[in-house]
């Protein structure tokens, strides 16, 4: 998301996080950062396969993801926690229902088009596509919208991702998301509220 800190501005021209600084090289956007790191550090081939067709499948999912899963899943967190925190007012329940309906459509496409009967998105091994997907899909879970509960295929895929990553690392990586409701108890500087409330509301339009 957007950041007004001076340090972020020096790393990312877009003044957004996440951002990467590697020596004199800087890079914004999470997907670009993941791909850069996978190439630089010669990661195991299954993360971003050298096979051109398997790699294309990862790229295909990453391209679809932004306009579908990412377009809806994070909004559950904004609606239930972040916007009320910064505005002091809850949003109408209809707004969450609208987002959940959009997310439900995306999840149906995810299962039928990408997951199908495979263990992971591109086949029998986990890839960056699965990591990008699971991080987004844990956000509704963190605010009490368990999207896995009534979707056995999706639930089993999540279990396989947890096992492949390692359960301890998986929950460590998602600790902040799974405890996001605790933010409701913190005090926000009034000036920061004034700055961020319009930005958050705009993100939902």
Automatic annotation (TrEMBL):
Single biological process term from Gene Ontology: glutathione metabolic process
SUPFAM superfamilies to which the protein is assigned, alphabetical: GST C-terminal domain-like, Thioredoxin-like
Enzyme class: transferase
GO cellular component: cytoplasm
Keywords from the UniProt entry: Cytoplasm, Transferase
Family per record: Belongs to the GST superfamily. Theta family.
Protein name listed in UniProt: glutathione transferase
Gene expressing this chain: Gstt1_0
């Amino acid at each position: 998301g957007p950041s007004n800190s001076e340090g972020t501005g020096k790393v990312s021209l877009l003044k957004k996080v996440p951002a990467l600084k590697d020596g004199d090289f800087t890079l914004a956007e999470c997907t670009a950062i993941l791909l850069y790191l996978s190439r630089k550090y010669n990661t195991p081939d299954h993360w971003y396969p050298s096979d051109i067709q398997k790699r294309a499948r990862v790229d295909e999912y990453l391209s679809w993801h932004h306009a579908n899963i990412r377009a809806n899943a994070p909004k559950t967190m904004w609606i239930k926690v972040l916007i009320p925190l910064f505005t002091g007012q809850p949003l109408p329940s209809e707004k969450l229902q609208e987002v959940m309906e959009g997310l439900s459509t995306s999840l149906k496409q995810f299962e039928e088009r990408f997951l199908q009967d495979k263990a992971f998105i591109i086949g029998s091994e986990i890839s960056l596509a699965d990591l990008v997907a699971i991080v987004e899909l844990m956000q509704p879970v963190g605010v009490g919208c368990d999207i896995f509960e009534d979707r056995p295929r999706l639930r089993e895929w999540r279990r396989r991702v947890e096992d492949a990553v390692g359960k301890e690392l998986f929950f460590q990586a998602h600790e902040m998301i799974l405890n996001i409701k605790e933010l409701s108890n913190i005090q926000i500087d009034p000036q920061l509220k004034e700055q961020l409330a319009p930005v958050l509301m705009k993100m939902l339009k």
